[in-house]
Amino acid sequence: MLGLGLAYFQYRKDLPATISSIFYPILGDKIYSPMRKTIDILAVFITAIGVASTLGLSALQITGGLNFSYGIPNTTTFQVNVIVTATVLFLISALSGLNRDFGHLMEEFYPHIMQLTHESHFIYDRASRLTDKDTLILVANAPYTTQSVKVAKFLHKRGVSIILITDLPSCPAASYSSIVLNTKSSEKQYTILPAIALLESLVIEFG
């Protein structure tokens, strides 16, 4: 319900993607007053408390299950260790980035699909593995990065077919692409949903 409220007021009413925007029908233009910041600050604290509570209850369930199954003493020290371990794993996952995890999952289910972006430092090493029998799906929305254009040029010279998904036909990578799919851009609200929908369809088709 919360996500639905945020989406409605952001995409239909052009309001900021903040919790205070949901109160617009009640507060009206007062959401642009200091009251807005108060609501958003309280939302952050409440969210943090909710996450901490969930983590604590999860630790109790984990230690209780280990105690029941393997007889490990369900002590406070053990519970704290479980919380610390879960926090460290969360930080590692957050710092490594979702792109890396998404890439591994995608390659697991679609062995013929390889993602280049989750290893940006070695992108040319991975790109050089592509042959003229492969196809690159490039998503490039303004402002365009120099690296995406250079990779498109590099693979175009190697004879790799390129399908470009972009928001403007004037994208610099268009001249190196075999097919250009133009997603209509909104003047009021930036969104990548059309590009994601096209990308998913192409992955399923090629995978």
Rg calculated over all Cα atoms: 23 Å
Main β-sheet, spatial strand arrangement? 1-2-3
Count of helix runs: 8
Mean pLDDT: 84
Which shape, going by the Cα principal axes? flat
Descriptive notes:
The chain is mainly α and 207 residues long. It folds into two domains: 95 residues, no CATH class; 108 residues, 3-Layer(aba) Sandwich (Rossmann fold). The protein is built from eight helices and three strands; from the N terminus they run ααααααβαββα. It has a three-stranded parallel sheet, sandwiched between helices. Helix 7 links the parallel strand 1 and strand 2. Helix 3 crosses helix 4. The mean pLDDT is 84.
Which key terms come to mind for this protein?
207 residues, mainly alpha, Rossmann fold, 2 domains, three-stranded parallel beta sheet, 56% helix, 8% strand, flat
Q: Which helices and strands appear, and what pairs or packs with what?
A:
Layout: H1 2-11, H2 24-27, H3 34-70, H4 76-96, H5 98-109, H6 123-127, E1 135-140, H7 146-157, E2 161-166, E3 179-182, H8 193-206
Parallel strand pairs: 1-2, 2-3
